[in-house]
Every structure is written in C-alpha cells, then in structure tokens.
Amino acid sequence: MSLDEPEPVWVALRLLIVVVSLSLLVLGVRVAVSRRVPGVWSRFARLTESQRSQPVRLGGNVALLGASQLVQQTPFLVPVPHPVGDALFAVALLLVVAAMAWFVLVRR
C-alpha cells in the first residue's frame, strides 16, 4: 500500500496516525526532558500525586509508544521492499516492549 492507493479514506487515516504519533513522540520527549507533567494530562487522565511526580517515566513511555506507531506506519506511506517492511514492524514491536519495560523499570 502507498499514497497512490485508490481509497483516500485509508490514506487520510494513516496520515492522521502519523501526525498523532509524531505529536506523542515530541510531547513525550518534552515531558521527559523538562521533567514537568503538563496540567492537561493531570486533569484529563486524573493522575495521582505519585504519578505526577514521575514525569521521566510518563514522558519516556509516551515517546516510545509514539515512536512505535510512527515506525509501524512508515511502510504504508513510503514504498519500501517487503523485508524492510518486516524489519520495521519488528522494530515497532521492540519499541512497544521497550515502552512497557520503561514504565515498569523506571522508578523514582
């Protein structure tokens, strides 16, 4: 599949996923580096005090999940050979596992 496929709804959905995952990646890195959880997250997700005190844990987790989605959507938007697409899918799965490990292992 590529951008020239006949169904424009799928292309729009994939581009939306790329935009959302890119914003998650940027926001997660920002939270992890600045060590401040945005107030919107606290209100929207109803984070407890212990969760708000761990911005590196939350930001890193969100950044890894955003990167995973971004890598997973790459073969659908950019023409790549099939083995490269399989490798990118494996990298996306590894990023999801890394996000779970990050959330479990990074404690303050």
TrEMBL record:
The answer on whether this UniProt entry bears the keyword Transmembrane reads: yes
Q: Which UniProt keywords apply?
A: Membrane, Transmembrane, Transmembrane helix
- List where the protein spans the membrane: 12-33, 54-72, 87-106
Protein name, entry field: Uncharacterized protein
Q: Which species?
A: Micromonospora peucetia
